[in-house]
Automatic annotation (TrEMBL):
It holds the Pfam family LOR. Gene3D superfamilies: LURP1-related. This is LURP-one-related/scramblase family protein. It comes from the Bacteria.
Amino acid sequence: MRFLVRDRLLAFGDDYWIEDDHGNRVYLVDGKAIRLRDTFELKDTQGRVLIDIHQKMLALRDTMVIEREGEPLATVRRKRLSLLRNHYRVALADGRTELDVSGRVLDREFAVEYDGELLAVVSRRRLHVRETYGVDVVRDDADPALLIAVTVCVIHLAEKERDDD
C-alpha cells in the first residue's frame, strides 16, 4: 500500500493531504500552530481525528507522543548514539514493542522496522512528482495510520534538530 506526501507542504502549522497511489485523498495532517507545543492531528476524509500527535513537554530529548482516542499509542525519540544516519526509536504503549526507524530522514530515504522485519519504506525514488515522497506500507497487517504518524514525527524531529543546529 503506497501513500504519497507532498513534501514542500510539510511544515508546522500547515495542513496537507496524504494521497493513495491513485491520487485519492486518504489522510489529512492538520498542524496546530497556535498551541504551546508542536501538535498535529491525522484525520480521515470525513474530518474524524484518527491520531493525535504532540510534543512531550517535559523531556530531556525532543519526544513526540502519538495517541489514539486519548490513549497513548507510541512515543518517538531520537536514539542517543546515531552518528552516521538518523536513527529513531518508537516505543509502543504496550511497553514491550519497539519500532526502529533509520536512514536519511532529511532526504526522505528511511525504513521502519520491527524486530528486523520491514514494515514501511519512505522514499523519493521512483516518484516522478517533484517534492513528493512515498510511504510504502509493506506488511498487510500493519497499521497505516500509525506508520504515517511515525513518519510525520520522525521528519518533524529531524527538521527541528537541523534548524536548532
